[in-house]
Structure formats: C-alpha cells, structure tokens
Amino acid sequence: MEETVTWARMSFKPKKSRALIIRKGKRAHQVELKVQGEVIPSIIDNPIKCLGKWYDDSLSDKNNIKRIEQQVSEGMTNIDKTGLPGKLKAWIYQHGLLPRISWPLMLYEVTLTTVEKLERTINRHLRKWLGVPLSFTTVGLYSRTAKLQLPFTSLVEEFKVSKSRLVMTLKESRDDKVRTAGVQVRTGRKWSASKAVSEAESRLRHKDIVGTVAVGRQGLGTSKSCYWKNANTQERRSLVQREIKSREEENRQAKTVELGSQGAWSRWEVEQRSLTWSDIWRYPQYQLQFLLRSVYDVLPTPSNLHRWKLSETPDCPLCGNRGTLQHVLSGCNIALTQGRYTWRHNQVLRELAEVIEKQRKDAKHIRNKPMKIQFVKEGEVGQENKKIISGILNQARDWQLEFDLGKKMQFPDSVPTNLRPDMVLWSTSSKKVIIIELTVPWEERCGEANERKKAKYDGLLAECRDIGWQTWNFPVEVGCRGFPAQSVWRMFSAVGVTGQNRRAAIKKLGQAAEKASCWIWMKRDSSSWKPTTNAQ
Q1: For 12-56, what is each residue's pLDDT tens digit?
Q2: How far are the Cα atoms of 121, 353, 426, 428, 473 from residue 400, in angstroms, in the given order?
Q3: pLDDT band at 220, cuts 50/70/90?
Q4: Are strands 26-27 and 34-35 parallel, antiparallel or unpaired?
Q5: Pairing of strands 38-39, 399-403
Q6: What is the widest separation between alpha-carbon atoms in the chain?
Q7: What is the pLDDT of residues 481-496, one digit of tens each?
Q8: Cβ contacts of residue 496 below 8 Å, gap of 6+?
Q9: 521 and 328 in contact (C-beta within 8 Å)?
C-alpha cells in the first residue's frame, strides 16, 4: 500500500511579525523588509506581546520594568484617590492590583532591589489606609506567626515564590530541550532564585531524615507530611514554594526579636488571632486602628509622645506615673479606683456568663456506661461508634449557676466563706462544684494571673473536698487587648463547649475586652469616669 502524505500549506503573515535591522551596532529605520509585497512592521515602532511578555527594540526588560513601576505607582495613587474607606482600599490592592503585577514580576528580569522599592510604596499606602503611623513595622502587615495576623501578602514574598516556581517549572519540564536549554532566571545580585531553590531542596531532604516533628501542642500523627523523596513533580513544586515562604517568615521572626516595643507581643502567653476580611468589614475604623496600634504599642501614649519628642513629660494625666500603654490599660491606680478596669472585667464576664448559662441549659445528662470492646472478625469492618461530646456539665442534671454581676453572689451553703468567685456552678445531687475566676490582665501577665487566682481558692476547694464534694477550679484570662489565653480554651473544653461553639464564644470574649479597652483608651485623659452602654 502506498501512503499518501498531505502537506499543510503555511502562509506567512507579515502583520503578525516584527523586523529589526541593525547596522554598525545601531538600529536602522531606512530599510524595509517585505514578504509577498507586504511590509513587515519594525519592532522599533510596533512592540509585540507574546505569552504576556512585551518585546521591543531594546532587547532588554528595562522599559518593561519601568512600566511595572509606573503601574504600581499609578495604581496605588488611583486607589487612594477614591472616596472609599481605608480598609476597602486595602482590599482592592490585595485582590485587584497585586494579582495584576505578580505575573509581570515573574516574566521579566526584575531585581529584588526593585521589588523592595515597590513594596515600600505599597506599605506607605497600606499604613495610611489602616490608620497606623509610618513607623508601623512590616512584620505587623505580613507576618503569619504574629499574635495578630492580617490578610495581606508581601510583594517581596510573592516575587520570590513566583521566581522559585519558574525555576522549578524549567528544571523539571517534561520537554528535554527545555530542561537542557540552560535558561537562567536572573533576579539580581542580592538574591538568587536558583540558590534559593537549591537551599529549599536541601532543607526538604533534611526534613525527610528528621521525620515528622510535632509543633506546639500538636500530637504525634495529627498531621500528614508529604516527604520530598516520595513526592511527584507537582508536589515538589508546592513543597519548594512552601519552604520559600517559611524562610521569609523566619526572617520576619528574626526581625521581631530585634524590635523593641513593637516586638513585645513575642513574649505574650496568649493564643494567636487571625483577622479575616469578614472581621475587618465588621470593625469600626477607630476600633481597628486601636487594635493594630495597641498590639504593636504605637498609640500616642504619654510615654510614646515623650519619646517621639512631641511632649515634654511622659507622665500619666490621672496619677502622674509614667504613662505607658500598660499603665493606661492595666496599671493606673486612679483608673482602678474609679472602676474602669472593673467595668471592663464585667463586660467580659457578662459574655462568659451567657455562654456558660446556654451550655448549662443545653447539657444532656450522660450516664457512665461500662466500656465494651467490639470484636470484629477477620475481613469484616466494624461499626464506628458515634462520638459523644462529654463535659463536666453533662455529669448532672441539677446544675445551678451564680455569677458576680449586679448582685452579691452567694457560695453554696455547704461551705461558709467570704470569698466571691466570679462564677460558681454546683450540683447538689452529685456533689460537684465548679469555680470560674476571670481576669483581664496585660497580655504578658496572663501566666502570673493564672497562678495567683489558682492559689486564691485552693483552701476553699480543699474544704469542699473534705466534706465529699468533687471540685474544679478554672482561672481564665482574657488579655486586655482582646487575646484570650489558653486557659479559656481548656475551661470551655472541660465544661463541654467545643468545636464551632467554642471558637465563637472565645471570639466574643476577646471582642468584649477589646471594645472595653478601646473605650478606656478614649477616656484616658478624662478625670471623671462614666461607663457607657455603647461600648458593650
């Protein structure tokens, strides 16, 4: 049989092509190239775009880099000129401008120094829109391990990740010619994408040797790890990008240690908070500013104003002591005497009492049943037992609740005492009693407050145990800037508040403390104190 070969006829399209003529090292305009009587456009007058990248007669990326700088500058200026609130301007940058400039930064040979210059322009506008001073650290904007995390992405980090992804794409391409072409991804002398990828691969191989490591309170086997030696091409690319991000976060952590007052949050004994865009929408602008400034101690306190050379004295206007942020929010004797801190404590206690009361009403009595072992024959699958959420409140039906709000609380008559815990639950039939003592301290003193409150009621609980009662003591702390300590999580788990209900309850407690502290801050210079219901 004879094979019939059909040749496809290709037609040359001059309009979609470009010509470049060089004479004696200079670009020439006089000569025209023609195909089939039609002139091929010169690339000097008609730059061409291919796969998202512009090519011109300079044969370099200088003009394209200038175009990126102009796009960032004009984009941030145009966003700033809109009459929108600052947090909405920040959202437009994060979801509008940033994705548009990420792709050109990966395509063109942009140096890290240029990207850092662009990020400084972006940071200046972000600080303005969020209402924080220019001295506000970039760690507060982009860190993923800080106590307060914002939903912003660093342009430098995005640049490094995209360049590393490009290196991996070329390095592990399915096409042999692409892999062996020796394409270099140039990023300047300050940082090399190829070296960063090599270091990331070395660290990933080292992690394979070390194995899975538990982080924080995480138990062994909780998370599944993807090992480098067993990963496919796509997984390796993701692992390298994740390692590049981890490296950037380590640099931010090192910078935090070097900071003074703005890095004090690294010593807090509280849980992290992550602000989502939904949270930011619900925040009033003044309260969002207070939260950001208070966490990084850049509020205009008397101490800071004196340090910034804007005030002659760092003294508190109420008591005359040094007016640091800790003093204003947690340590002023006049504010304590006037009941400002007590009012804030009661605001948080009211939210806590609502959660515990709801759990007391919803709790179901669970009888202690003997444990049964279910044997399964070989080859069969056993039935999965339904998980029953248990807690102390599920161990009895006649729980009574008393809390120290608006009236003098009475401890159960079984043990006479003059102590007044913030909250007491007891069951007469099962002889169980729970004490919950709330403190709203300065975040760095949460551990100290927990030990002090625990020791305060040891004697009372010992008397209850002597007469046959089973006792629990839960000292809980919610930082005055809205950061609940780990003791709050443990208490909720013990009484049976778990899952989404626990997360929502803890969020309410933090917001109550934060709002109250914001009101105390606004009234810091007023000698008279009158609580308001608007701050609730």
Answers
A1: 787 888 888 888 777 777 777 888 778 888 888 888 888 788 888
A2: 59, 12, 5, 9, 16
A3: low
A4: unpaired
A5: unpaired
A6: 110
A7: 999 999 999 999 999 9
A8: 359, 363, 389, 390, 391, 392, 393, 394
A9: yes
CA distance 90 to 527: 37
Q: How far are the Cα atoms of 112, 203, 417, 422, 469 from residue 463, in angstroms, in the given order?
A: 67, 57, 10, 19, 9
pLDDT tens across 442-457, in order?
999 999 999 999 999 9
| Domain ranges across the chain | 63-212+226-258, 274-338, 344-366+390-535
**Amino acid, single-letter form, for residue 152:** F
Mind listing the pLDDT tens digit for each residue in 378-423?
Answer: 767 666 555 555 788 888 888 988 888 876 666 776 677 788 888 9
**HEC per residue, 94-155:** HHHHHHHHHHHHHHCCCCHHHHHHHHHHHHHHHHHHHCCCCCCCHHHHHCCCCCEECCCCCH
Q: For position 215, what pLDDT does the model report?
A: 72
Q: Does residue 146 contact residue 265 with C-beta atoms inside 8 Å?
A: yes
In this structure, what token pair is assigned to residue 200?
């990331």
Cα separations (Å) of 332 from 10, 340, 370? 85, 10, 55
- Cβ pair 199, 238 in contact under 8 A: no
pLDDT of residue 386: 52
Q: What is the pLDDT of residue 382?
A: 61
CA distance linking residue 503 with residue 274, whole number of Å: 12
Average pLDDT over residues 114-119: 96
What residues contact 347, with CB distance under 8 A and at least 6 apart?
A: 512, 513, 515, 516, 535, 536
Q: How far apart are CA 120 and CA 366, in angstroms?
A: 59
In sequence order, the 6+-apart residues with CB closer than 8 A to the CB of 61 are 108, 109, 110
**Residue 377, CA distances (Å) to 9, 372, 374, 380, 381 in order:** 71, 16, 10, 6, 8
Reduce the DSSP state of residue 339 to 3 states and report it: coil
HSE-up of residue 500 (Cα within 13 Å, Cβ side) = 0
